[in-house]
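Here's what a typical entry looks like (tRNA threonylcarbamoyladenosine biosynthesis protein TsaE):
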Amino acid sequence: MHKHRLFLKDEAALLEAARKLANAVKAHEDSVAESALTIYLLGELGAGKTTFSRGFIQQLGHQGHVKSPTYTLVESYDLAPWQINHFDLYRLADPEELEFMGIRDYLGTHRIILAEWPQRGEGYLPQPDIIITIDYADTARSITLEALTERGRELLDTM
């Protein structure tokens, strides 16, 4: 395992960390294209998972608003050469619901999966390349980025 721990004093610093990871993805475009890059986002309600996702998605080229997929379960963004699928599984009643919604359609080459509350989709989501844990640290945030694959390690080392 390979971990980076950061202390982020405010939302701007959280967004900057997300942008750095997105830039690492751009720098390793070929290895990310091979199969779905999967990033799990862990943390309490309001910790900053969606904020991190917003910074990441916008750095990869999305110009508009990044909506929280809390009610839709997934929001997709076509940002050539990738399709980013941002999942929020907080309201998922049963992991099997992912099969019914066609989870396999969101996997494959040139796909990036950002999954908030991934533990609720256990058994249906792919294993993560990177796990990002965001914790409260008084009014700031502590963030841990952990690589679980060689590709994940390459991305974190590029940050």
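The longest strand covers residues 130-137.

More examples are in the samples folder.
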